[in-house]
Amino acid sequence: MTFNSLVKATALVLALATPQALLAGGAAAPLPTQDWEHKGMFGEFDNNQMKRGAQVTVEVCMGCHSVKYIKFDFLRQFGFTEQEVKDMAESQGQTKKSRMISSMSEEDAKDSFGVIPPDLSLMTKARKGYEDYTYAMLTGYLNEDESELINNAMEDDALSDSEIQSIAAKLHLNPDDPEKVKEVVTRIQNGENFNKYYPGNFFAMPQPLMADQVEYADGTKTDLHQLAKDTTAFLAWAAEPTLMERKSTGKGVLLYLILLTALLYAIKRRMWSKLH
């Protein structure tokens, strides 16, 4: 194979591997960066947050998605009672020993959304941006101010330059491409799901989380930011449930190496002192 043929073949593979949304849409807004308590060598999962995130995942996300690598019974480690775990499992037509499989069948999901919703078990590991990506997908839909701006613009026969600039600024679109802005407004008007952080901006999932959608037993506020952060943290645990054990082992190994290094240094000094 010649070099030119190799380049063309590689380009073809990359083109076929590129999600259609990336080919059809523009660049997404930069992902908002969040502080995650479990990140870093000494980071840990907060059991209270895990419990809240599991609640949102079961009550909301599992209406369409599964978390198939996790069993409902695993949730007891976060403080859920056996009865609570049983109730959560039964809400999805499962038992407490079952894996967290959505009650919605793949056929029904495809009929409703046109695609089969992906399993969430490894979602925070599967996308560039990791937890920040998942959080952004949950919070990147139109907020009240943005929706009002779009609705007001729709009442006009044609978008003015100032409206195009305002919409572009709010939705992180290119203000120098008015036709693209108009296209986005039209697609929103037609009921498509806009997300400012998703490459291409439109995808099948309607906004899954809204403020006060669930009620936390510990009294924590349930605004969109809190719901999204709790859910993302839980999914980060689901993607790597042994993370804390690995960190604990790593800390023990580091301590051992430090002590061993100190011991070897002391032995070295003692041996060399006899040669002087």
Description:
This protein has helices at 3-17, 20-24, 47-59, 82-91, 106-113, 123-126, 131-139, 144-154, 161-171, 178-189, 224-239, 243-273, and strands spanning 67-71, 99-100. Helix 3 (47-59) crosses helix 11 (224-239), helix 7 runs antiparallel to helix 11 (224-239) and helix 8 runs antiparallel to helix 9. A two-stranded antiparallel ribbon has the order 1-2. The protein starts with a helix and ends with a helix. The protein is an all-alpha fold.
Distance between the termini: 67 Å
Q: Order of strands in the sheet with the most strands?
A: 1-2
Structural class: mainly alpha
Strands, count: 2
- DSSP helix count? 12
The chain-level mean pLDDT equals 87
Shape: globular
Low-confidence stretches: 1-25
Rg over CA atoms, rounded to whole Å, is 25 Å
The share of residues in helices is: 40-55%
Task: Summarize this entry quickly.
With 276 residues, the chain is mostly helical. The protein has twelve helices and two strands, in the order αααβαβαααααααα.
